[in-house]
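User: Could you go from structure to sequence for me? I need the amino acid at each position, not a summary. Structure tokens:
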């Protein structure tokens, strides 16, 4: 159990090994990024539940992803930009607020998914993913590709497909990559 992990609640889902470019402007998050970079520590990206409440009162999903800062830059307007890469998934057990409003959590890291050979029935989904990643070249530049790994393919499809956040969150929570691919198959057909 990790205690006091800084949390970055967002209306998005970060997947293991996936890129997340962010512009950081709130002082509490600028400070958090600075501490994470200085201490070489991850922060937790966790989706805000869509319940109509303000972000300060909103509920957080129970599963999120630890993020590692891979790169940073200062924009002309003075905003801090970072590129975070998803690491391990985690389960959120409890949260607290620091005096500056930053949420921190007690989390349990979930084991990484094993690499699973891609069954022939999902080869067309892997081909569709290859085509999508070529279109998104800049964002995925430098990220290792494994188009023959069911886990990697299913996670990339879940993050790239234009599907609702509830579908993305469900995919993050699934522990079986083949089950995730079966779940995504009709959504891949709809997005074509």
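Assistant: Here is the amino acid at each position, in order:
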């Amino acid at each position: 159990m990790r205690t006091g992990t800084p949390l970055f609640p967002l209306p998005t889902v970060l997947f293991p090994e996936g890129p997340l470019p962010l512009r950081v402007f709130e002082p509490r998050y600028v400070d958090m990024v600075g501490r994470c970079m200085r201490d070489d520590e991850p922060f937790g990206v966790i989706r805000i539940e869509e319940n109509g409440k303000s972000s300060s009162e909103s509920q957080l999903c129970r599963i999120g992803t630890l993020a590692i800062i891979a790169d940073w830059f200062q924009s002309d307007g003075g905003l801090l930009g970072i590129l975070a890469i998803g690491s391990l998934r985690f389960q959120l057990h409890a949260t607290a607020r620091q005096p500056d409003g930053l949420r921190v959590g007690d989390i349990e890291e979930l084991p990484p998914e094993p690499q699973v050979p891609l069954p022939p029935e999902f080869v067309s989904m892997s081909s569709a993913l290859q085509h999508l990643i070529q279109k998104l070249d800049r964002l995925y530049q430098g990220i290792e590709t494994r188009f023959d790994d069911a886990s990697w393919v299913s996670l990339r499809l879940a993050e790239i497909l234009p599907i609702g956040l509830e579908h993305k969150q469900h995919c993050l929570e699934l522990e079986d990559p083949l089950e995730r691919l079966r779940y995504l198959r009709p959504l891949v057909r709809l997005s074509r």
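One structural detail worth keeping in mind: The radius of gyration is 17 Å.
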